[in-house]
Amino acid sequence: MSKTKVALLGAGFIADIHIASYHRFVPDVEVVAVFTRKPERAEAFAKKHQIALRFSDLDKAITESGCDVVDVCIPNFLHHRAVLAAANAGKHVIIEKPFAMNLEEADEMIAACKTANRKLMYAEELCFAPKYERVRKLVNEGAVGRIFQMRQCEKHSGPHSDWFYDVNQSGGGALMDMGCHSVAWFRWMLGGRPKVLSVYAHMQGGLIHEKRTRGEVNSLCIVEFEGGAIGVAENSWAKHGGMDDRVEVYGDAGVIYADLFLGNSALTYSENGYGYAMEKAGPTKGWTFTIFEEAFNQGYPQELKHFIECVPEDKEPVVTGEDGRAVLEIMNAAYHSARTGQKVSLPFHPKVRKPIDLWLGT
To answer: With b meaning 16 or more CB within 10 Å and e meaning fewer, what string describes 299-334?
Structure first.
């Protein structure tokens, strides 16, 4: 069977994870091209990963690379443009989180791919992370009874790239960056597409990034679902000591706790320090938890393998553009709630360019 050809848009941290996942775990893929806005960076990335074509023009990367699938790993404000260009060129799309900058963009992206009869696959890796998938299967087996509360937190000391701190490029801060994982996981645990009744959120700015961003660096968001379950999302760019990613599931017959990183690491002591312990961990002198198979444990290879299979086999992806839009709508409600101090009922369709405008009032 011929390989599915992928054009990778982006050459940053997440693009590195995608290319490594393709090379190691998805043999039916050939990454034929890479795009990034800086020509020298595109050339360096292509050379490092043995990619034949490199582009600094977004449209040419899509139309001249001969790809079947466009994998979108570029800053949030470019998602809309990239997806429309891919749909117009007849390409399937894998798109990293968050789905779009606003709901109008999201609707246009979904409509464009439907019109072109192309698959729009929303890359939410927590729906594929092996440890968290085991949690979901336990719930489906009835291990904890009926869920009444879930908690998911992702916290660290700040993003890899400067553009995250610019709300005009990112659309928001810690909630926009990581809260989308929490919301998508809540929906996944409750059967994929449960109805949301209300959203309440509190956000904090400043803290350790006061001079870098106007966005929220610490957030708490509570999502109330039809049927009585609530989801509590805790997200922070102000937590030192490396990545913290964990879930809790409370049911009327049991409880489950799972940590994405602990249990997938080697306790290490080093007098001199070493290269890499885990995402956002910082210095490696002294005691550290050294992560192994990080991308695999987070679900990236499983996610990409599933998406690629969906193209030749014409299967519906388990996480779609509509799912990405639903997550964005909930985050919009959270930003509005953080400003007003009130619960926000759904549906909630504000006319804003980016979600953080609802918090900052701009």
So the answer is: bbbbbbbbbbebbeeeeebbbbbebbbbbbbbbbbb
To which residue do tokens 């918090």 refer?
A: 359
| CA 113 vs CA 103, 109, 312, 319, 354: distances in Å | 15, 6, 17, 15, 22
Residues paired with 107 in a beta bridge: none
The pair of three-digit structure tokens given for residue 203, joined into one six-digit string: 């956000």
Closest CA to 175 of 63, 330, 296: 330
Q: Looking at residue 234, what DSSP letter applies?
A: E
- The Cα–Cα gap between 290 and 285 comes to 12
Cα→Cα distances 159→11, 122, 166, 239, Å: 15, 21, 11, 12
Give tens-digit pLDDT for 280-323: 777 878 877 777 788 898 999 999 999 999 999 999 999 999 99
pLDDT tens digit string along 199-238? 999 999 999 999 999 999 999 999 999 999 999 999 999 9
- Count of other CB atoms within 10 angstroms of residue 216: 32
Decide: 8 and 71 in contact? Cβ < 8 Å.
yes
The two structure tokens encoding residue 251: 């049911």
At 146, the pLDDT band (50, 70, 90 cuts) reads: very high
Q: How many CB atoms lie within 10 A of CB 146?
A: 13
Predicted confidence (pLDDT) at residue 164 exceeds the cutoff of 80: yes
Q: If we measure between CA atoms, which residue out of 264, 352, 270, 254 comes closest to residue 278? A: 264
User: Is the pLDDT assigned to residue 266 strictly greater than 80?
Assistant: no
Residue 308 tokens, joined: 């690629």
For residue 286, the model assigns a pLDDT of 80
Residue 195, CA distances (Å) to 66, 91, 223, 305 in order: 40, 31, 10, 29
CA quadruple 285, 287, 293, 299: dihedral sign: negative
